[in-house]
Amino acid sequence: MPKEIRLNAFDMSCVVHQSPGLWTHPRDRSLGYNTLDYWVDLARIAERGLFDAVFIADVLGIYDVYRGGATTALEHAVQVPVNDPMMSISAMAAATEHLGFGVTCGISYEHPYPFARRMSTLDHLTRGRIGWNIVTGYLDSAARGMGEPGQTEHDTRYDMAEDYMEVVYKLWEGSWEDGAVLRDRTSRRFADATRIHRITHDGPYFRTDAVHLCEPSPQRTPVLYQAGSSGRGRTFAADHAECVFINGPTQSVIGRTVSALRGSAVDAGRDPAELLIFTMMTVITGRTGKEAHDKLAEYRAHVDEDGALTLMSGWTGLDFSKLDPDAPLQFQKTDAQISALQAFTTNADPGRVWTAREIARHACIGGRGPMLVGSAEEVADGLQDWVEKTGVDGFNLAYALAHESVADIADLVVPILQERGVFKRVYAPGTLREKLYGLGRARLGERHPAARYRRG
Do the beta carbons of residue 416 and residue 385 sit within 8 Å? Predict the structure, then answer.
């Protein structure tokens, strides 16, 4: 039986997400990023195409590595201004019935006690359709904004994340027992206080002594996404993640990352098939191949290479303005995204040498990820080929134009995938976790680390 392909619409609450300059295109809607109409329309398009989720990226801080400052990021709107990704989700949930929502929230600069309440609130308001993309951050500007001299070392941030997860698991899974909520009007008892517990935690990075402020939500713990494929990131994903978001320019790079992630899952005692892996992809399609390539040519007239290098500098921690544009890019240890630099250096295709100039051209549309261009049939072929050759389960689909790119996939590509039996024709019932893993699995399984904190 063919593997079902899963799709997320990848976006961010900003003007420039992955395709710098394309906000200037007359059909692009990115300038509406700060309106509810923008997000509600995106959600409706994604649900029309039976996408699994809208996956919202986020970053705290500003891209100020390129040319030693924030001028290019500010003038070119490179992921700044950027709004809080959580604020639009309730409106999108009210406008849809089945669509899931993956929201990126970092652990480095917010205490887990208030964060746990915000996620439980969203799980209630979405009726169990929320997921959390766990990130540790990668910009020094974020640390300075929070009063620190610079960000914590890369692997230490994952140590912090381990401590953070223990706190939120205790709050979500261990504070309120099943059956603690009575809602008994006759006895005037809302809850049985004997089944609600104050949790304590005194870890190396976080401390708390509190009752979770929310009654249990449909999933309790949101679906756990993780976006990091460095060695330390893979270990963290193997222990905690249900879905992993990876990124790289070619099939061989992605294939090696998928194999490493599934191997880490086996080492952690998990079924590697239950680790759902999404890679980023940008699709430009039309009813014919010519129409698609005409769109690409039209889009390329608006690209912004300085914006692309601003992104790459922030992601890798290297100032690309100081590099020889035609010299091979070399790996350097930084405290930014290690995997971002490895994809173009130590983990690149054998014999493939990337220069700064080539990376700028590559990243202008779709960032670090690959691009598929062609008729809807050709794109469907390409997506199936990626699944077969890399082992990914699906794609985080970045847009070239908002919301044109998502609508093209929903209306042109999805019907072909459905005809081929590799894409769902209806949504499964239940929560986001149940839609991904099956009815009756609204909560994390008993073998997940969160389960050890359950009571009753």
Answer: no
Closest Cα to residue 34, out of 72, 77, 96, 73? Answer: 77
Q: What is the pLDDT of residues 397-451, one digit of tens each?
A: 999 999 999 999 999 999 999 999 999 999 999 999 999 999 999 999 999 999 9
Looking at the DSSP bridge assignments, the partners of residue 56 are 11, 103
Query: Which of 446, 444, 56 is closest to 217 using CA atoms?
Result: 444
Quickly list H helices, 281-402: 289-300, 305-316, 338-342, 356-363, 376-390
Distance CA 69, CA 332 (A): 20
- Report the C-alpha gap between 258 and 214 in whole angstroms: 36
Token pair, residue 349, equals: 């295709």
Decide if pLDDT at 233 tops 90: no
Is position 153 within any domain? Answer: yes
Q: Could you read off the pLDDT of 137-185 as tens digits, one per residue? A: 888 999 999 999 988 998 999 999 999 999 999 999 999 999 999 999 9
394 versus 353: the higher-pLDDT residue is: 394
Does residue 175 lie in a domain region? yes
d(C-alpha 125, C-alpha 94), whole Å: 8
Q: Find residue 189's DSSP bridge partners.
A: 184
Q: Is residue 314 part of a domain?
A: no
**Quick check: 79 and 14 in contact, CB under 8 A?**
yes
pTM: 0.95
The answer for residues whose C-beta is within 8 angstroms of residue 388's C-beta and 6 or more apart is: none
CA-nearest of 435, 436, 426 to 50 is 426
Q: Is the peptide bond before 154 cis (omega within 30 degrees of 0)?
A: no
Q: How far apart are CA 388 and CA 381, in angstroms?
A: 11
Q: How many whole angstroms from its chain centre is CA 1?
A: 28
Domain harbouring 18, CATH code: 3.20.20.30
What residues make up the domain containing 427? 6-62+71-290+369-453
319 domain residue, yes or no = no
Share of the chain above pLDDT 90, in %: 82
Please answer whether residues 380 and 374 qualify as being in contact, where contact means their C-beta atoms are separated by less than 8 angstroms: no
| Cβ-based neighbour number of residue 425 at 10 Å | 10
Distance CA 180, CA 191 (A): 5
Number of separate domains in the chain: 1
Q: What average pLDDT does this structure show over 83-108?
A: 97
SS3 content of the chain, % helix, strand, coil (to 5): 40, 15, 40
Give yes or no for residue 336 having a pLDDT over 70.
no
